[in-house]
Amino acid sequence: MNIGDVSTQTGLPAKTIRYYEDIGLVKPLRDDNGYRRFRSQDIHKLNFLGRARALGFTIEDCRTLMALYEDDTRASSDVKKVARAHLAQIEAKIADLNAMRDTLGHLIDACAGDDRPDCPILQDLGGKA
Amino acid sequence: MNIGDVSTQTGLPAKTIRYYEDIGLVKPLRDDNGYRRFRSQDIHKLNFLGRARALGFTIEDCRTLMALYEDDTRASSDVKKVARAHLAQIEAKIADLNAMRDTLGHLIDACAGDDRPDCPILQDLGGKA
DNA sequence: AATGAGGGTTCCAGTCACGGGAAGGTCAAG
DNA sequence: CTTGACCTTCCCGTGACTGGAACCCTCATT
Q1: pLDDT at position A72 over 80
Q2: Residues of B with Cβ-Cβ distance to A122 under 8 angstroms
Q3: What burial letters (b/e) apply to B55-72, b meaning 16+ CB within 10 Å?
Q4: In chain A, where are the structural domains located?
């Protein structure tokens, strides 16, 4: 399979697939004309990567998870550890964003949003005064 | 005031302050020795920027908000529009992260986390099977 | 006078995970 | 034979900084 078809199949942009090869996450073969030839195992890997990325794992996490995936002697605790660390990051980010949303929401509610210059949003940013 | 003191006062790293000058957000004066000299208005601006950035506004949003802040003839609706667009972005991101958290949370709960290789997390990433 | 500490300066490279676009090779169809 | 759709590599840009090198300025101490 050529990269275009793989892109369609996996939903990953061709650029992304080439990038994943660059950083050693996939190793497709090459045809005589230089085109990448993807085997089913490559496509399987790419789907794995796509799902892991969709869950927000970093590329390095993906590398780790793939290694574990391909290691029959892995301990599920190792997988769980990676996942839990990532979950903690997600929850921290959610907390940050919730705080922003609350503050911003209040400010927006307090702002008249008309053609006058008075604006509690700018007042807050300017240091309340 | 030199950059070190400004950094302490505003809580912004000196590097960040120089960067903000680079991109034209602040324009401190210069002493004869080449050192930046910050006036109170510069510090005020930097505090404004710090707060806006803490609310997650992009640098470009900050530029817009600062311009509105300094424009006595602004309409608060313009400010509100920027803020609402940003709030929408935040909420979209929260939704994404919540979805990730839910999925990841379920997978983690389902994973034994012991020394055996069986792992629902990897099964899911591998395409359920 | 030399030295050292603790400021400051510029500039360059790296981050993360790609995306855009140029310049060029390959292939099947008309 | 040409067209158009593929494919290739290579390099630059993204956002908002951060780290580090190499160097200057000022003051205090030896």
Answers
A1: yes
A2: 65, 68-69, 74, 79
A3: bbbeeebbbbbbebbeee
A4: 1-57, 75-129
